[in-house]
Amino acid sequence: MKKILRYPPDRVKSGTIGVELPGITTRLVDENGSDVSDGCKGQLLVRGGNVMQGYWHRPEETARTLAGGWLHTGDIAVRDSDGYLRIVDRLKEMIISMGENIYPREIEELLYEYPHIREAAVIGVPDKLRGHVGCCYYTVEPGAAVDKRALKKYLQQNLALFKVPRIYYEIDEMPRLATGKIAKKELEQRYASKQS
């Protein structure tokens, strides 16, 4: 656990969620529950007076989420040397391929920089050899075209090879949740239905 400096509201860092607030303590931990160093990815744990006491009538889920007196947010974050936190992904969306952790958001951010990609989502799908691999769904700007081979080559040039999705689907429109977010569970179901 690291004590960090408090910054006034006018010291905002773009792309971060800020620093710890008074009365709140945070940790970033690896999959073994050990604290990670600044600049490393870890699950964000939070403790403080504003943290929930538990889920209504769900003691097992409460015990998992509040293990050790810390709220396990499920967010993967990075803390910089000034104490600012940046959310980089969700633990539930992390893909484990051949024992390596792959964070879909890192890939998606690159996809959004690629010419004519309108929207992108990366999900993990079962693979007999690797356990899971990345599967990329994307939409294209009206009237444009994206060559899948060129897209894959672009990702290979900008990512470690184990992070590059193995499967690519261009679709007309992304499925959405009521909140407007991309419905990744629906993409997983769509992929599974193609395999049966």
Provide a concise account of the structure shown.
With 196 residues, the protein is α+β, with helices and mostly antiparallel strands. Helices cover 20% and strands 31% of the residues. The chain folds into 2 domains: 24-91, Luciferase, domain 3 (Roll); 94-195, GMP Synthetase, Chain A, domain 3 (2-Layer Sandwich).
Highlighted features:
single chain, 196 residues, alpha+beta, Luciferase, domain 3, 2 domains, three-stranded mixed sheet
Proper CATH architecture of the largest domain: 2-Layer Sandwich
Largest sheet at a glance?
4 strands, antiparallel
Q: What's the CATH topology label of the largest domain?
A: GMP Synthetase, Chain A, domain 3
Distance, first to last CA = 47 Å
- The tally of strands reads 9
Number of helices: 4
The CATH superfamily of the largest domain turns out to be ANL, C-terminal domain
Strand content: 25-35%
Element order: H for helix, E for strand: EEHEEEEHEEHEH
Report Rg.
19 Å
| Count of spatially separate domains | 2
The backbone outline, from C-alpha atoms, is globular
| Overall average pLDDT | 90
- Residue stretches low in confidence (pLDDT < 50, at least 5 long) are none
Strand order, sheet with most strands? 1-2-3-4
- CATH class of the largest domain, please? Alpha Beta
The helix content, as a percent range, equals: 10-25%
SSE class: alpha+beta
Written overview of the protein:
By secondary structure, the protein is an alpha+beta fold. The protein has 2 domains: 24-91, Luciferase, domain 3, CATH 2.30.38; 94-195, 2-Layer Sandwich (GMP Synthetase, Chain A, domain 3), CATH 3.30.300. The protein has 4 helices and 9 strands. It has helices spanning 59-65, 104-113, 148-158, 184-195, and strands at residues 24-29, 41-48, 71-79, 85-90, 95-97, 100-102, 117-127, 131-140, 167-170. The N and C termini lie far apart (47 Å).
